Structure formats: structure tokens, C-alpha cells
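Project outcomes to date are best conveyed with an example. Our students and postdoctoral researchers have been running inverse folding experiments weekly, and each run begins with a structure described purely in C-alpha cells. The record below, which covers 269 residues, was selected by the lab manager from last quarter's runs and is presented without edits.
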């Protein structure tokens, strides 16, 4: 390890402190389990009276729940007279809940609009919250209208992000479906050309159900398949080219007749 850098933990004491601080529920569960095992097994330890073992096991069993209850009660008592303030700013995505001492909140400085009351008047919402520790001065800024509160703006922003995500999914689905529609157009073109040519050769009437048949086939195909299985347009064009061969461009100079065809001139319309 380079001398310029230091490890995260300096020893096993640092590791144990980190585990206790970050995994409090795990440590409490292990302590309760150990206390229950000591009460059930009751191991014999030379030189240790049974009362001491019982007290130790009781502390392990009842200590973590009582400690959690004590901490929760102390927080409730501490915050019962505090002013509950929500600092929400939709610009920098700040969302935090603060407890301000009543005397500090009373002497606060409001720059701009007043704080907006929320939770049936039990709390306040501010857009800017700055506390100067050296002068013990609090500077806040609220909102002019309730509909412009940053909490509503954050909610609308989250809703628009969800809608945007749904629109992206729908766009991808329709983009894939466009390939199936392109294939349907190619099939209609092929069937119309082939069936009209066959009708002209046999002296039959031109078929008029080609578009309908292909449209119903494409509809059934789209309903039967999952959207992820639908190909893109380029893949359908490649399949059509593989089946019918590449399209040969027509040279306009060669396709033009050597001499113009005879005609009577027609009539003007």
C-alpha cells in the first residue's frame, strides 16, 4: 500500500465499530439470540454464580429492545416542542425533514414569500433553508402560491418522468410494429402484381380482396406475437430481397424506345 494513502480500517476495533454502527439490527438480533441461548442452555462456568449468568443473559435478551424503546421515546420527547420544517427544492432536488427549536424559528428571517403550512398546519415547507451557526440566525424562503410549492413540483416531475418512460416504451413498440406494416405493404404489392397478371392471362376479373386479406393477416400476426418479437423494417426488407432477389434499377435511356410510337394525337380535355 502506498504511504500516501491509508486503509479504510486501522484495525479490528475500527471494523467492529463500523459493523455496530451500520448493522445495528443485526447486532441487536445476535445479542437477543445469544441471550435466549444462554437462558435455555444455562452453561456451567466455574467461578461465576448463577445470578450473574442470569443477569447477563437478561441484559442480552431485553437490552436491545429496551434500548430501542428508550431512544425512540427520547427522540419523541425532544421533538415534541420542535417546529417541523420540510426543506424541499425542486431545482437542486433537495428533500429533507428538519426540526427547528421554537426560539430559533420565532426569530427567523424570511426573504421573499413566507413559509407554506402543510400537514394541517402542523409543519412548514420552505424552498430555501440556511442556518448560520455563528450568529444563531435562520434564513428561510417559502413560496408565493400553494400550487407553486416545490413539493407539488417534485410530485409532478416524478409523474412526468413515469409518463415519459411509458411513452418511450410505447414508441419502441410502435417502431417495431412499423416493420410489420412495411412487410404488409410489400406483400400487398406482390400479391396485386401477381394476381392481376394471372387474371389478365386467364381473362378473369381483377381480385379486390388482396388488401383486406393481407391486412387481416398482419393484424392476426401482430396480436399473436409479442412486441419484442416484431422485427425492424430493414429486416423485413432483407427478407423480401432474399425471397425475390434484388431490385434491378432501370436505365431510362435504354428503356426509351428507338422511335416514338405512332399515335393519332388524341383530343384535348
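After processing, the design step wrote out the following sequence:
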Amino acid at each position: 500500500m502506498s504511504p500516501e494513502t491509508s486503509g479504510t480500517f486501522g484495525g479490528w476495533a475500527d471494523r467492529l465499530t463500523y459493523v455496530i454502527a451500520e448493522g445495528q439490527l443485526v447486532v441487536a438480533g445476535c445479542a437477543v439470540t445469544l441471550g435466549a441461548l444462554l437462558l435455555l442452555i444455562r452453561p456451567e462456568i466455574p467461578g461465576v454464580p448463577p445470578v450473574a449468568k442470569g443477569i447477563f443473559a437478561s441484559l442480552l435478551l431485553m437490552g436491545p429492545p429496551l434500548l430501542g424503546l428508550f431512544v425512540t421515546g427520547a427522540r419523541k420527547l425532544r421533538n415534541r416542542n420542535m417546529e417541523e420544517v420540510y426543506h424541499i427544492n425542486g431545482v437542486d432536488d433537495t428533500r429533507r425533514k428538519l426540526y427547528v427549536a421554537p426560539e430559533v424559528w420565532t426569530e427567523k428571517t424570511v426573504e421573499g414569500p413566507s413559509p407554506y403550512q402543510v400537514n394541517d398546519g402542523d409543519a412548514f415547507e420552505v424552498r430555501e433553508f440556511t442556518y448560520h451557526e455563528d450568529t444563531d440566525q435562520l434564513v428561510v424562503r417559502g413560496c408565493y402560491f400553494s400550487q407553486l410549492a416545490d413539493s407539488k413540483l417534485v410530485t409532478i416531475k416524478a409523474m412526468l418522468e413515469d409518463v415519459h418512460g411509458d411513452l418511450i416504451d410505447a414508441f419502441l413498440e410502435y417502431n417495431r410494429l412499423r416493420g410489420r406494416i412495411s412487410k404488409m405493404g410489400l406483400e400487398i404489392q406482390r400479391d396485386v402484381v401477381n394476381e392481376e397478371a394471372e387474371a389478365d392471362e386467364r381473362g378473369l376479373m381483377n381480385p379486390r380482396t388482396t388488401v383486406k386479406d393481407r391486412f387481416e393477416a398482419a393484424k392476426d400476426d401482430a396480436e399473436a406475437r409479442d412486441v419484442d418479437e416484431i422485427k425492424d423494417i430493414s429486416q423485413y426488407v432483407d427478407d423480401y430481397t432474399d425471397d425475390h432477389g434484388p431490385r434491378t434499377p432501370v436505365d431510362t435511356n435504354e428503356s426509351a424506345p428507338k422511335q416514338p410510337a405512332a399515335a393519332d394525337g388524341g383530343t384535348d380535355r
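The CA atoms of residues 113 and 143 lie 5 Å apart. The first strand starts at residue 83 and ends at 89. The training component of this project remains on track.
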